[in-house]
Amino acid sequence: MPSPDRAARSTIDPDEVAKFEAMSAEWWDTEGKFKPLHMLNPCRLDYITGQIAAQFDRDLGAQAPFAGLRLLDIGCGGGLLCEPMARLGATVVGADAAERNIPVARLHAEQSGLEIDYRHTTAEAMAEAGEAFDVVLNMEVVEHVASPIDYLTACHDLLKPGGLHICSTLNRNAKSYVMAIIGAEQVMRWLPKGTHDWNKFITPDELYDLMRRAGLTPVDRKGMVFNPLGWSWRLSERDLSVNYVTASLRPERVTL
Amino acid sequence: MDNPAPGPIVSAMNRDSDILITGGGLNGPVLALALARAGFTVTLIDAAPPEADASAAASRAYAIAAGSRRMLARLGLWAALAPDAQEMAEIKVTDGRAGEGPARGMLHFDSAEIENGPMGHMVEDRHLRAALAEALGAAEGVTLKAPVRVVAQEAGPGGVTVTLDSGERLTGLLLAGCDGRQSGTATRAGIRRAGHGYGQSAITCTVAHELPHKGVAHQFFMPGGPLAILPLKGNRSSVVWSERTERAEKIVAGPDEAFLAALRPAFGNFLGQIRLEGARGLHPLGLSLAERFVAARVALVGDAAHGLHPVAGQGLNAGLRDVAALAQVLGEARRRGEDVGTGPVLERYARWRRFDTATLAATTDFTTRLFSNDNPLLRLARDAGMGAINAVAPLRRAMIREAAGLTGELPELMR
């Protein structure tokens, strides 16, 4: 596969690189600004890897278990999910609407010795261009978009038939207001104030409904629950009250 | 999942192995085997030549706890060890004083009191080393570099590089320091150590004796330090005899007859006539704790993290628990696609092992200070104390379980 990022990298000037190095260090500083994401990451990865392994019948203990799978991470940021997916052998495209994240993510992937195709683009533009993936990761994005149904339709269109869509977001209820807005943004300062607009949070049933309208078949949903004693996150069958993650499929083509 | 295909996680990555290990003693090779089993490629770096005749070590034997035995079985080592392993059916702890015989408050542990079978097995160092060497030779994905020394190590964003005295440079994602209580890996990573000597050294030897030991292990708390008599296959026992260092040095330096003459009064005659078998060793004792288990792309294992007093026979078992926990944490991280050398992954290992280790270090340190003393008041107090522990069954069972390595959150390899 040709490497489009190599050409792009050569156009970056040295001052920019210094700035991106600082930003890359920030994205990947597990004790810094993105600490909450780093804490959540193992839990998200457990869900993602488990769902992909089940859907595509892969053994996670094998060498490069995701080899041959084409995977898109929407809202890739510094590449916190892209890198593990690439390390597991997937062919990874990371897309982010924030242009400045792209060179940051590229730089870190290079340091990690991983080949990842990072692009400054949107799900809608990629769907328009006719891109097709086995897996689309859509993590903590849907609560930030203007039109969830249009966005999820683009996610559907980006999947090959039988493809897997993993989507996580925040539930909308009194508890999520206390935890995500007051707790995470105002008390713990884990996230900058204004990161989330609680009114745009989506309940699991609303998300299932939106996904069905976008042509996706929901197959699984789990809560992601923070345990303050172990200072870690875990997956929960029942507690979807704040953070939760879902799996849905683009149905195989039906011949009429 | 059994026996996943070993191999690099990402073939495109330019590194020699996923994991580099320093130290070819016991923990290093076991860690190499456990990581290879989890699918990692490993380079084991040892300062000693592969066929080294460690004659001091050759006189040693280890009390393998139940969890450790299960782990060795999982790693395919136990089948080779079992024929020469002696079951420990009972442990008798006695406060003794030379020439006076055992005191009355004798502490008695019997494996019949816990449901998990024997309290442990005695395995001789020579057998363990032979089994490890054979398994390493057969393991896929394990490279041995010996005899070489590490002269420099450098952690970077993409991995860790070590420079060998041969000039060769090796790269990996993580450097695991299994290089003992004077761990160069820890020093180079800027990890400081705390601890103190006990002014004691352990004399180790193997004795053959006239009468059968019936699988009973004895620990006598003598004024100079504890004396352990641990059953080996046949009418043989392994002796770990702690003494004040200057006396220990004199005892070891003497000819066999003088050595036995010094040992006999402490050993007693409950096993009949004794004679020396093979070499004897001398090991200075001290507590040596690393201030941290991990640093950037570095994890410490076993004595490199926590050199304990061998009073509870827990050194090797604690090391194997480190190995099992680290192998599990790294194996899980690998399945998630995480970079196994990064802070969040290593912190999981450190958090898991920190508590266990602190407890064990505090306990053995306290026990040593309490027992290595001829103050008559302390002696009376500990006689009463041991009598009391004996009288309270739940407390005694708890101590047996701890000694058998059955407490705490056990790593999968030990379950």
From TrEMBL, chain A:
This is Ubiquinone biosynthesis O-methyltransferase. It catalyses: a 3-(all-trans-polyprenyl)benzene-1,2-diol + S-adenosyl-L-methionine = a 2-methoxy-6-(all-trans-polyprenyl)phenol + S-adenosyl-L-homocysteine + H(+); a 3-demethylubiquinol + S-adenosyl-L-methionine = a ubiquinol + S-adenosyl-L-homocysteine + H(+). It comes from the Bacteria. Pathway: Cofactor biosynthesis; ubiquinone biosynthesis. It is an enzyme of class 2 (transferase). Belongs to the methyltransferase superfamily. UbiG/COQ3 family. Keywords: Methyltransferase, S-adenosyl-L-methionine, Transferase, Ubiquinone, Ubiquinone biosynthesis. O-methyltransferase that catalyzes the 2 O-methylation steps in the ubiquinone biosynthetic pathway. GO terms for molecular function: 2-polyprenyl-6-hydroxyphenol methylase activity; 3-demethylubiquinol 3-O-methyltransferase activity; polyprenyldihydroxybenzoate methyltransferase activity. PANTHER family: METHYLTRANSFERASE (PTHR43464), UBIQUINONE BIOSYNTHESIS O-METHYLTRANSFERASE, MITOCHONDRIAL (PTHR43464:SF19). One of its GO terms (biological process) is methylation. SUPFAM superfamilies: S-adenosyl-L-methionine-dependent methyltransferases. It holds the Pfam family Methyltransf_23. Its EC number is 2.1.1.222, 2.1.1.64. S-adenosyl-L-methionine binds at residues 44, 75, 96, 139.
Automatic annotation (TrEMBL), chain B:
GO terms for cellular component: ubiquinone biosynthesis complex. Its cofactor is FAD. Pfam families: FAD_binding_3. Gene3D superfamilies: FAD/NAD(P)-binding domain. InterPro entries: FAD-bd, FAD/NAD-bd_sf, Ubi_Hdrlase_CS, UbiH/COQ6, UbiH/COQ6_monooxygenase. GO terms for molecular function: FAD binding; monooxygenase activity; oxidoreductase activity, acting on paired donors, with incorporation or reduction of molecular oxygen. Residues 17-335 form the FAD-binding domain. GO terms for biological process: ubiquinone biosynthetic process. This is 2-octaprenyl-6-methoxyphenol hydroxylase. The keyword Flavoprotein applies. Coiled coil: none annotated. It comes from Limimaricola pyoseonensis.
